[in-house]
Amino acid sequence: MKRKVWVGVIVLAIVLVVVIVGAIIRNRKSSSAGVPYTMAKVERGNIEISVSATGTVDPITYVDVKSKASGEIIVMPVQAGDRIRKGALIAKIDPTDVKNQYDKAKADLDMAVASRKQAELDLKRQQELHDKGLSSDKDLESAQITLEQAKAGEVDARVTLTLVAKQLHDTVLLSPMDGVVLVKNVNVGQIISSGISAVSGGTTIATIADLSTVYIHSGVDETDIGKVAIGQKVRVTPEAYPDSVLEGKVEAIQPQATTVQNVTTFQVTCIVENKNGLLFSGMNVSTEVVAAERDDVLTVPLAAVKDFSELKTLAPKLGLKRPQRAEGGATASAAEIHIPRRGQGRSGKPGGPGGKMVLVKNNGKIEPRRVEVGLQNLDRCEITGGVAEGDDVLVITGSKSGSQSFPGGRRMGGIPGLSR
Questions:
Q1: Pick from 87, 64, 68, 45: which is nearest to 298 by CA?
Q2: Which of 198, 215, 392, 408 has the highest CB neighbour count under 10 A?
Q3: 345 and 410 fall within a common domain
């Protein structure tokens, strides 16, 4: 019985040793003869590079409403957030004092008109007497002077009445524009000072803004400002409405940088149509300036595009012959991967130092191909030559990937601000 137990233990131990040794051997073969990768198709799609930043909303047109009249607010029907039309009532100031002045000025004008009419009658009688030789020249001249004085008095009274009527009109404050009441600064019962006679500039009653079209002021990192240009398309996402995206364009780029805590940014102003009224003054938003884009182009995952030096390192692990420096065409075998001489182009085309390659799986075999690359972002790369739609390419994980470029191979620089 004991003998059978020992035999069973020995057999089990042998099986375990065989399994462990097999696993070790397979692991060594996997690590030496291969690298982790997935397969991907060369497919058509859209690709873009955008510069991300955060910004705030500012109205393009706004007015600080002040009154030309001084006094107590007796009516104020508006509240902050109200949408009002041009000519709508904002506030009414107690008109008692001004109304008294208006009544007095009107009475003075009536008196001046009566005096002028009387002076005209006196002059007419003096003229008739003078024509008959019954009055002297001095009496006629005196009547003429009296009439001119009466006319001047009428003009003065009429001007005074006009001024007082304007002051009375100013006690009713109307909206100068269509818009939204951003801030309400006073309430009924508060005494305000005139905006034209007070040394302090007068009391601000309310602030009204037109939010149909707004400015977005964003701080773009200095590493990305070179990619931003006036007229570029901008996508704006309010933090309050993350599922809503509004479109605009770059309106201006501030040439003076701002540095805060060793971070240098440039202010970029975008203009956006505030559709559905989602944007409010001072609201925080995320912006994406579309620096470059391509539609309906061949693309591959960025991790599938390799430099020659990287491919040279990966070749033995993939079971390929180690590539050597040699002249070659647009498609080369592992032994014919070409490293160009110094001085050849940097366009990212075959033969240039910026030349790129992909590994294509064809009929079960892996072969390197030169490719011409275009636009790249953090995920995908545009391919303008070297492979065809539907080709299978190796996406090797955990390895160095290509650099960010504009069309023509121009380097994008650092990562800050870049997004898909």
A1: 45
A2: 215
A3: yes
pLDDT digits over 320-349, tens only?
Answer: 665 554 444 333 444 344 333 333 333 444
What DSSP assignment string belongs to 370-397?
A: EEEEEEE-SSEEEEEESS-TT-EEEEET
Whole-angstrom Cα distance, residue 220 to residue 404?
18
Enclosing domain of residue 110: 96-169
CA 190 to chain centroid: 39
Judgement on whether residues 333 and 363 belong to the same structural domain of the protein: yes
**Residue 382: both structure tokens together:** 């545009």
Cβ-proximal residues to 252 (8 Å cutoff; 6+ apart), any chain: 230, 268, 269
pTM of the model: 0.63
CATH number of the domain that residue 76 is part of: 2.40.50.100
Is residue 301 domain-resident? yes
Residues 6+ away with beta carbon under 8 Å from 213: 60, 271, 272, 273, 274
The total number of structural domains that make up the chain = 4
Asked whether residue 317 is assigned to any structural domain, the reply reads yes
- In this structure, what token pair is assigned to residue 229? 């240009």
pLDDT digits (tens, 9 = 90+) for 271-326: 999 988 899 999 999 999 998 888 888 988 988 888 887 877 777 777 666 555 44
